[in-house]
Design goal:
Elements: E1 3-8, H1 13-23, E2 28-34, E3 48-51, H2 58-67, E4 72-74, H3 81-93, E5 98-101, H4 107-119, E6 125-132, H5 142-154, E7 173-175, E8 178-184, E9 190-198, E10 201-209, H6 216-226, E11 231-234, H7 236-240
Parallel strand pairs: 1-2, 1-3, 3-4, 4-5, 5-11, 6-8
Antiparallel strand pairs: 6-9, 7-8, 9-10
Helix pairs in contact: 4-5
Length: about 240
């Protein structure tokens, strides 16, 4: 029997991609297409919810899914560790609930983030430059937020990265001590560069999305995991064993 999926944010770019994928799949059915003006009661009866809405709406979607005890895949940007914390608390109290927070569905992005995490303890200067299409409404991206938090965690015993003149607006937004610079412009799909600087050298870890096809394997991986996993999972890397 096919798994029924409610898509929240179905009219957006990512929602449209998910809709097309599931409509062509033998393993999944679209249970409901939920837009900004639709009632979340449309989630009733779904096997899985996938949320690709907007940061202001997403927490309410997650709450509604957990209230209904429906596993949820969260692909919306803006889910920092602070925002995840109350979801983690709720799932700790009720371990049979399921939430997967996936800042980026690209396998390559998950690998690049892991590479940055591994390199972070070896460099004092680390900054992130991320670029997305002009229609992306939030910044920094969820991927950049997650990458910065993992860099900081990897350096927990060493202290924050060196970020001189952080009071100047042009120096970017500090996320877990890491300066993040966001570009929103035409001609770009999605790109992230982590620049690590040390004595006499720099290392650049770059991931660029050239087509939305790059998200498809990760979307399917997350949806399948949601039907067989309980608890809280953060990042596609956790599903890839990274």
């Amino acid at each position: 029997m096919a798994t029924s999926v409610a898509i929240v944010g179905s009219s957006g770019r990512m929602g449209g991609l998910i809709d097309r994928m599931l409509s062509a799949s033998d393993d999944f059915d679209v249970h409901a297409r939920v837009g900004r003006h639709d009632s979340l009661e449309l989630l009733d009866g779904a096997d899985v919810v996938i949320d690709v809405s907007v940061p202001a709406v997403s927490p309410g979607v997650v709450e509604a899914a957990l209230d209904r005890r429906i596993p949820i895949v969260i692909g919306t940007s803006g889910w920092t560790s602070d925002r995840i914390a109350p979801v983690a608390t709720r799932i700790t109290a009720d371990p049979e609930l399921t939430a997967l927070v996936i800042p980026n569905f690209s396998l390559g992005s998950a690998l690049a983030t892991r590479f940055a995490e591994l390199a972070a303890p070896h460099f004092e200067s680390i900054e992130i430059v991320e670029a997305h299409h002009a229609g992306k409404t939030d910044s920094p991206s969820g991927t950049a937020l997650r990458t910065a938090e993992l860099i900081a965690a990897a350096r927990a015993d060493l202290g924050p990265v060196a970020a001189p003149h952080a009071d100047q607006r042009a120096r970017g937004q500090l996320v877990a001590s890491v300066p993040v610079h966001s570009l929103r412009m035409s001609g770009v799909s999605a790109r992230q560069e982590v620049v690590l600087g040390g004595a006499g050298e720099t290392v650049r870890i770059v991931h660029e999305t050239l087509s939305d096809e790059s998200y498809e394997p990760g979307i399917l991986l997350a949806l399948r995991a949601a039907t067989s996993t309980t608890g809280l999972v953060v990042g596609l890397g956790a599903l890839l064993g990274l």
